[in-house]
């Protein structure tokens, strides 16, 4: 009879453990899929989502082009697609077609358009700052179905190119700063009103404009974020530009646009040279703690394109995918009695991640293996090496109480039995 009870207890324990492992595995897959070097990884479509908008607005066959482009963008591991369609009522149906394709392939949208009157797109009459603010609020309230939680909405892309003009020429630094802050708050309030969690503090601008406009006070008022559309001769210039701006603004940086080749900057690169330039840039940027997101410009069209006109991928596509969809090392951090340790840090040469409430962590890495250091408050740090397989990491406590020593004893006895 005693043996039967023992078997029942053992079977019960095994059943509970098995159920936990299955639950844990399912949750691990979901979390691992969200592990990236940057919180926002985007590829731009402006050459096809804005420039020909009027031409194809009533052409349903263009949906094939939209679908094909968004599909290959999603295949790189991008988490966002940047759409440049204007926000005027005329273009909303065209914008909705791009958004629908993004949702089909599981992408969030970075709305990188503007109202056409700001820069005079499509022969629209010029609008003032006050008109822009009124139109912004109304557009969000009228088109809530376009948005989902996690999207990014830029109300005024490269704002210095329209309206009253570039503050570097007009001298209206104060007015330009206040306009961006007002637009941020108006957008924020409008999205709150429709119950959508959409970021509105992404204002892409020329890097020289950012140096003038984004002082620490303005950066703080815009949620601590600076977004620059930045083209430079070398990967080192790109990386240094991020650091310089982070230091002068006190904020984190997003590369709203970057890419190569721009012939005036890098020359006429071959396909291999383009891939090498992008690889060198991303290899530097994954180590840059000041960079939180980036948008490659552009997918199709222009000298920096990732895909040729016949939709065939250039060599650079594989490079982007390597960094947008990296290898993932998964593991669980526990103490010596098997209790999960939350908030532990796992630091590699490329990035740092933290363990969740279950002790689980997901570390992105480039290459065949990764070395990392694992540490937590009150525990001794240890080094690990992984090729990407699931790994349990046991940390030893620096100060063991009598109660913990008893726990260890019982834990070890249980393993023996």
Describe the structure in your own words.
The chain has 417 residues and is an alpha/beta fold. It has two domains: 40-324, TIM Barrel; 326-416, Sandwich (Immunoglobulin-like), CATH 2.60.40. The chain is 42% helix and 17% strand. Helix 6 (129-142) runs parallel beside helix 8 (173-193). The longest helix is centred in the first third of the chain and has 31 residues, at 2-32. Mean pLDDT is 92; it is low at 4-30.
What features would you highlight for this structure?
single chain, about 425 residues, alpha/beta, TIM Barrel, Immunoglobulin-like, eight-stranded parallel β-sheet, 15 helices
CATH homologous superfamily caption of the largest domain = Glycosidases
Kindly report the spatial arrangement of strands forming the biggest sheet. 4-3-2-1-8-7-6-5
N-to-C series of helices and strands: HEHHHEHEHEHHEHHEHEHHEHEEEEEEEH
The second-level CATH architecture of the largest domain is Alpha-Beta Barrel
Radius of gyration: 25 Å
Largest sheet, strands/sense/barrel: 8 strands, parallel
Number of domains: 2
Low-pLDDT residue spans? 4-30
**Which CATH class of the largest domain?**
Alpha Beta
Classify the helix fraction into a percent range: 40-55%
Mean pLDDT: 92
Helical stretch count?
15
